[in-house]
Structure formats: C-alpha cells, structure tokens
C-alpha cells in the first residue's frame, strides 16, 4: 500500500460538479492499493497517516502529527499511484490491486481512520473520475509505504 501525503491548507474532491469531500488545514492522502494488501498494511498506513510528523511545533520543527493538530484528513483512492513505471512510455497496472479488492481495502482504511481519529476524515468517491484540488502547504509531500 502506498500513500502520497501532502500537507495542505485546504483540499477538496469534486465528482460531476458536486463536492464529495473537503478539508481545511490537514493532510490529503492519495492511496494506492497493491495486490495482497490487507489488514496489516491498512493498520500500518492508518497509524502513519495519523501520526507522521509533518506539522510544525512551537519552534517551527516538523514534530507534530495530524492526531496532535486536529486537522482534516482527505483520503482519495488512486490506482495509478501503484502503476509500474519502470520501463517504456506507458504505465502498467498489473501492480495495482483489482478494483473489487482495492475498494474493500480502501474502505477498511477509511473505517479505521474514522474510528481512530475524531478530527474529521473525508473521502473522494471510489472508481469515479475525480477532480482533486489542493493548496499544498510548504510544499510538504511524502510517499509512505506500508
């Protein structure tokens, strides 16, 4: 499982002209599910999303995680993140989980994050064509792997 996280001042997801998820300051996480990802990977990524220290403390150092700041978390499933780009000029998607498996795993991730974090967890819409907009704060962007 992969999560490309971006510290944001705001982010939103629009599907067919409707905003389906939006946050103020917090984290936008684009999540790629790989074949075989399950409960262990979901738990690890959830813990990292909520606790990865990307927010500044009183001294301006990145020492605080989302759970310490109360910011929003916007989770967006993105199968292209798991693409094989090692060769050629076209991505291969055999390294991404099949849609049914990915949707189940992504739903588990959303449920665990909502259970563990009261600060607000929003999502895009699985399988939809989404317009994701954000204001990257920093910019601060990290690629997490389970």
Automatic annotation (TrEMBL):
Taxonomy, superkingdom: Bacteria
Compartments in which it is found: Cytoplasm
Catalysed reaction equations from the record: a D-aminoacyl-tRNA + H2O = a tRNA + a D-alpha-amino acid + H(+); glycyl-tRNA(Ala) + H2O = tRNA(Ala) + glycine + H(+)
Keyword Cytoplasm: yes
InterPro entries reported for this sequence: Daa-tRNA_deacyls_DTD, DTD-like_sf
One term of GO molecular function: Gly-tRNA(Ala) deacylase activity
Keywords for the protein's UniProt record, in alphabetical order: Cytoplasm, Hydrolase, RNA-binding, tRNA-binding
Gene Ontology process terms (BP): D-amino acid catabolic process
SUPFAM superfamilies per the UniProt record, alphabetical: DTD-like
Assigned EC number: 3.1.1.96, 3.1.1.-
Assembly, per entry: Homodimer.
Family: Belongs to the DTD family.
Protein name: D-aminoacyl-tRNA deacylase
């Amino acid at each position: 499982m992969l999560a490309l996280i971006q510290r944001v001042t705001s982010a939103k997801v629009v599907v067919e002209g409707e905003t389906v998820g939006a946050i103020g300051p917090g984290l936008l996480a684009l999540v790629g599910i790989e074949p075989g990802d399950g409960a262990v990977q979901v738990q690890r990524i959830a813990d990292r999303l909520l606790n990865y220290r990307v927010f500044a403390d009183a001294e301006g150092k990145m020492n605080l995680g989302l759970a310490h700041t109360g910011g929003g978390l916007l989770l967006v499933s993105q199968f292209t993140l798991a693409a094989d780009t090692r060769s050629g000029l076209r991505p291969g998607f055999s390294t991404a989980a099949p849609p049914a498996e990915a949707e189940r795993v992504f739903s588990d991730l959303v449920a665990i994050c909502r259970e563990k974090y009261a600060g607000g967890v929003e999502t895009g819409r699985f399988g939809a064509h989404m317009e994701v907009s954000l204001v990257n704060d920093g910019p601060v962007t990290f690629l997490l792997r389970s």
